[in-house]
Specification:
The protein has helices at about 35-50, 65-80, 115-120, 125-140, 145-155, 155-165, 165-175, 185-200, 205-215, 225-230, 235-245, 255-265, and strands spanning about 10, 95, 100-105, 105, 115. The strands form 2 sheets. A 3-stranded mixed β-sheet has the order 2-5-4. The chain is mostly helical. The structure holds zinc ion (ZN). The site of zinc ion has 6 residues, from α4 and α8.
Length: about 270
């Protein structure tokens, strides 16, 4: 925790996979976007984020190559389980955003993953981070609808972003990505899939539950209403642990020590 005690937990876990009319995705919904559309829209948003270092101060991947290598190893351990549907279809590129006061991570369609240094410093160990990142990846992998985004922008505008050159609209979508919340069912599904992804690794597959417990216990953290109400964090923790038990996941590692070494490769927290 930072001395200021004013961490803003956004934790929107806003990965949005793709816009599908039904609000669902690989689960049988009518999806008007192709995988290529996912990739194209994700690439456009990623380019927009890269062009806006004031809003998204991304750590340089060469200067901080050790930190990036660590996160990519974590990502690869998830992708290599065989549980990620679009493991080879999507990009799964990682960018670290250097904002220590923001506890958040998000993901674009097509799998561009963004994680804030505030989140990296907030979690207790690597299993918690793995749980959060697996949840983000699940939203992209499952190609969850963003009802809010579709309502806000309309399908035609989102389609136009793929083929056109609308920098200001892209910037707005990118900014809103950090704030949007998914439906309760999408969140629950992503929680469950995150457990499935981690179940094939050495990580404690209930890592995300530890994160939610930590958030609830942190008095200094500001939690937006949507985060604390849907789904209820207590319910999420219980459901995640139940999923771990049902799947009989055997991983127990939290990698606390190696995680501390990873943190030392980041800029010093302010
Ligand atoms: Zn989510």
């Amino acid at each position: 925790m930072q001395g200021s005690g004013r961490l803003t937990v956004v934790f929107t876990i806003v990965c949005f996979g793709i816009i599908s009319i039904s609000g669902c995705s690989e689960g049988g919904g009518v999806n008007i976007f192709s995988l290529e559309d996912d990739r194209a829209l994700g690439a456009k948003i990623a380019a927009s984020i890269a062009s806006d270092p004031a809003q998204f101060p991304v750590l340089d991947s060469v200067q901080y190559h050790q930190a990036y290598a660590h996160l990519y190893a974590l990502r690869d351990s998830i992708l290599q389980t065989g549980s990620v549907v679009h493991a080879t279809d999507f990009n799964w590129e990682i960018a670290i955003i250097h904002q220590d006061t923001i506890v958040n991570a998000f993901c674009t369609p097509g799998g561009y993953i963004y994680v804030y240094t505030g989140l990296l410093q907030f979690v207790d160990n690597e299993a918690q981070l793995a749980g959060v990142l697996a949840h983000e990846m699940a939203h992209a992998d499952l190609r969850h609808s963003t009802d809010q985004l579709t309502k806000a922008y309309g399908i035609s505008l989102l389609l136009n972003l793929i083929v056109g050159e609308n920098g200001s609209a892209l910037a707005e979508v990118a900014a809103n990505l950090t704030q949007l919340a998914f439906s309760r069912s999408d969140e629950s599904q992503a929680d469950a899939f995150a457990v499935q992804y981690l179940c094939g690794t050495t990580y404690d597959a209930s890592g995300a539950a530890g994160f939610f417990e930590k958030v609830q216990q942190d008095d200094s953290t500001q939690i937006p209403a949507f985060f604390s109400t849907h789904p209820n964090p207590d319910d999420r923790v219980a459901e995640i642990k139940e999923e771990v038990a049902q799947l009989q996941c055997t991983g127990t590692q939290t990698y606390q020590d190696s995680y501390r070494r990873f943190l030392s490769t980041l800029p010093e927290a302010k």
